[in-house]
Amino acid sequence: MAYANAQELLEAIQPANGGTEILDPATGELVGRVAEQNAADLDAAVAAAKAAQPAWDALGHAERKRLLNAAADQIEANAEALAELLSREQGKPLNGPNARFEVGGAVAWLRAATAYEVDPEVVVDDGETYAAKHYRALGVVGAIGPWNWPMMISIWQLAPSLRMGNTVVMKPSEYTPLSVLALVHVLNEVLPADVLKIVAGGREVGEKLSSHPDIAKIMFTGSTRAGKAIIRSSADTVKRLTMELGGNDAGIVLEDADPQAIAEDLFWGAFINTGQTCAALKRLYVPESIYDAVCEALTAVAKAMPMGPGLDENNVLGPLQNKAQYDIVADLVNDAVASGAKVLLGANPEENATGYFYPTTLIADIDPGNRLVTEEQFGPALPIIKVKDSAEAIRHANALEVGLGASVWSSNREKALGVAAQIQAGTVWINSHGTIDPRIPFGGAKQSGYGLEFGLDGLKALAQPQIIKG
Hints:
By secondary structure, the chain is α/β, with parallel strands linked by helices. Helix content is 40%, strand content 20%. The chain has helices spanning 6-13, 39-58, 60-77, 79-90, 99-112, 150-163, 177-187, 203-211, 224-234, 259-271, 291-303, 323-338, 371-374, 390-398, 413-420, 455-460; strands at 20-23, 30-34, 121-125, 130-137, 140-144, 167-171, 196-198, 217-221, 240-244, 249-253, 281-287, 342-345, 361-364, 381-387, 402-403, 405-409, 427-430, 445-446, 449-450, 463-469. The strands form five sheets. It has a seven-stranded mixed sheet, sandwiched between helices. It has a six-stranded mixed sheet with strand order 7-6-5-8-9-19, sandwiched between helices. The protein has a three-stranded antiparallel sheet with strand order 3-4-20, with no helix packed on it. The protein is globular and about 60 Å long. The relative contact order is 0.14.
């Protein structure tokens, strides 16, 4: 079925009466209501998914691929309604790398899960010994998603899980449940009953999911603090885990970079989704020789990017999704300003404004130990740190306990590759930042998590390796 607009889609997923109100972070207006679910609802969803899993697995790869591609077609048929709902609930604008972009990404990643063959791998065949590695379904996968990219990250979790013969129980963020409920509703118009379940509850549901004896694996995207709690609660049942945790990604500009040429890509590396992205560029190290030029070029780009309510087609930056995140950003920026750092742009939000809008903010001449540098701001504020050379930048980049992504900016690819090899991060981009690809594995280093997503490696991570010898 194709829904004409977000309101029509909302009517299909909202409770008939009651429920928790979800408000638009840009306007404070009511978006919709979500049913209040609890641990008992989770138990029922897990039981249904467990019962459906053997038949889903028995369909085989070819049929599961066909159904997942049909599900992608269903998202495309409802793309505008989904994007509008996402914009209203999460706050991100329709245009730019935002709501429509996210729905398109959900389609791309869903189709990518069908693009690979997962064949047995012969590991020994010497005439005397034969052994092969097979990839079997795990059972029921629990997926716990975030509020920043709720639809696309849900697809990152559910698509490879389903492809490999698992069934899935999802728990969306309490901040953005409607987006994921709508997505699952659209997918379930194609998928067999009970292979994809969703329980929109609070912390009680998340804790129950991560310790549930019938959940074989947890996929989680969120903060390092929450990830550690999930790791602890999953230990008694020895669950498999894929953890994509917090990041505080460093960008390192080399002396041979062209400030004008890289300014717009630097901006979007840092401010995509108004900075609310785990793998966004969150601290930028620039050598003294081109520091002023980079600051000037980046400020010029940032000034030209319109911020406002997401349903206004002119905007490309939106509000922070929730008050708690707004307060974190404001606190870190205030601390930087109080320390004597220089404000190039922003840092002066309008008092008593409607919505959680924090202005696009660039902070220069900041100490590398300032909290805005060492703590993840997860919002539209970028500290630009002056360094003597790349060696100093590398030391600062590696000094923190996180290592999700990083980037190196240079006119000399070989030089950039040499610097990239010294950075402790799961992914290092050259002359871009955060440009993920469904074909390329993605995962964190240090306390930014473990396990790989995307591509063939991501599919294998949703399976139990089994060696058959003989």
